[in-house]
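Cont'd.
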Amino acid sequence: MAQRIQNLRRAPTSSKMARALDFSSRRWALRIIWELRVGPLNFRALQAACGRISPSVLQRRLHELRALQIIEKIPRLGYRLSTAGEKLFQVLAQLDKWSRDMPVPLEQK
Amino acid sequence: MAQRIQNLRRAPTSSKMARALDFSSRRWALRIIWELRVGPLNFRALQAACGRISPSVLQRRLHELRALQIIEKIPRLGYRLSTAGEKLFQVLAQLDKWSRDMPVPLEQK
DNA sequence: ATTATTGCTATGAATACCATAGCAAAGGTT
DNA sequence: AACCTTTGCTATGGTATTCATAGCAATAAT
């Protein structure tokens, strides 16, 4: 385990990781996944859950997330996490924990 | 553990998490942390490690990350992860693992 | 003294994101 | 059936973010 992390520290950033980080930096991408943790949500419900996302961006992200097979569209219920999406949720759960443990409040201008 | 995740699924998105997700979506923010996993890097080294980041954005992110006390500036060596930054690295290590296990390649246009 | 490296700042163009309005299709109600 | 509501999206035009590139003062190395 410690060994695994040591190797991670030495190895150059993999292209897969570079892409994952790049994708993570698209606005609302991770938030959408996080909101879907509760179960399937339709377009408007997701919009409301995210707070202030504009529909054009939501629409774009949904397409992207579907192309990556992180979420899937189901006929009457809207969108839900795929298996890969569920695994990504587990990672985000760690981020949630981290954010709660942060000594400095994560305020941004 | 399963219980903890169940609770996460039910609870609304905390404001701390919302901010963490928002911050994660600033371009290069997580990548910078990931590149610093190897140890302290100076400005130009970080620039090179990230590949194509423009100096103005790097500069801005470094300020933000310092304000959040995720990284710290050390006189001759450049920038390095703080304790909180190291913890965030652990989360990113999970993301790295996830990206490697992804069945669909994370390609983006 | 000269050259190279480093840490930045400035600038203008390209891209991403925003708020808002609106509309066709489907579902529910009377 | 006629009406109203909800839903999933598209269109538009403005604002913010990020980009590539150039450059410059300060420090370090030769």
